Amino acid sequence: MEALLIGVGVILLLLMMLALYRAIGGPTIIDRILAANVIGTKTTVLIILIGILYGRVDMFVDIALTYALLNFVASIAASRFYQRHVQPVAEPSAPPEEPKEESRA
Amino acid sequence: MLDLIVVLFLFGGLLLFTGTTVGLLRFPDFYCRVHAAGKGDTLSTMLLLGGLILYHLHDFSGASVLVGLKLFLIILFVFVSSPVATHAIIDAGYEARAPYWVKPAPPESEATSPDPGSPPPSPES
């Protein structure tokens, strides 16, 4: 059973590295924020997996819970910053019909 | 028996995460990628963590049940927070007017628009 967990961890790591391609070479900035969110979510699973393999789950589960919280807050903060302060680089090919106002909290 | 359920959960989570990654890499547009990442990411995390809970509850004791409860708390938090983060990301992309992907028009060929006066094109070329 331990070999299965090691195999799951290796496949998880390989797939996270594939998502890293989108984080590095995403055409827009918001693509990179999205890929970082995906990688962060899977990091919590990887932390708990390593905790089970080392036999000390009780320590690693606290770390994983904290990292899940951090990932969530960082995703929302980064996307809010992009929404308020970054101008789009490329001209959109089909802009939305009614542009919303900035009067939302 | 519990081993079978653990293996099923882990493989299901890995399968969904493979779909998430392939969607992240292959979709042409930012909005499509958020679909793939948001949905697949949440459910695959929950399935993987559920499998790990069942694996950890193998040796049943008081301490392991407490750790299992904490892991279940992580599952609940991911269930609530990951869709919220997905919505925040796609809202930011929409408000900042991320470019849409437009399907490229098919190339004009002689077979589709023949000349009425000329003879039909030969099978070669």
Give an account of the 3D structure.
The complex is a heterodimer of chains A (105) and B (125). By secondary structure, chain A is mainly alpha-helical. Chain A is 75% helix and 0% strand. Chain A contains 3 helices and no strands. The longest helix of chain A has 29 residues, at 57-85. The radius of gyration of chain A is 18 Å and the shape is elongated. Chain B has helices at residues 2-26, 30-56, 62-95. Chain B has 3 helices and no strands. Chain B starts with a helix and ends in a 30-residue tail after the last helix. By secondary structure, chain B is mostly helical. The longest helix of chain B is centred in the middle third of the chain and has 34 residues, at 62-95. The mean pLDDT of chain B is 88.
Give the overall shape of chain A, derived from the CA principal axes: elongated
Compressed to H and E, one letter per element, the order of chain A equals HHH
The total count of strands of chain A amounts to 0
Distance between the termini of chain B: 62 Å
Sketch the major β-sheet of chain B. none
Report low-confidence residues of chain B grouped into runs of 5 or more.
none
Averaged pLDDT of chain B: 88
Write the layout of secondary structure elements.
The complex is a heterodimer of chains A (105) and B (125).
Chain A: H1 2-25, H2 29-54, H3 57-85
Helix pairs in contact in A: 1-2, 2-3
Chain B: H1 2-26, H2 30-56, H3 62-95
Helix pairs in contact in B: 1-2, 2-3
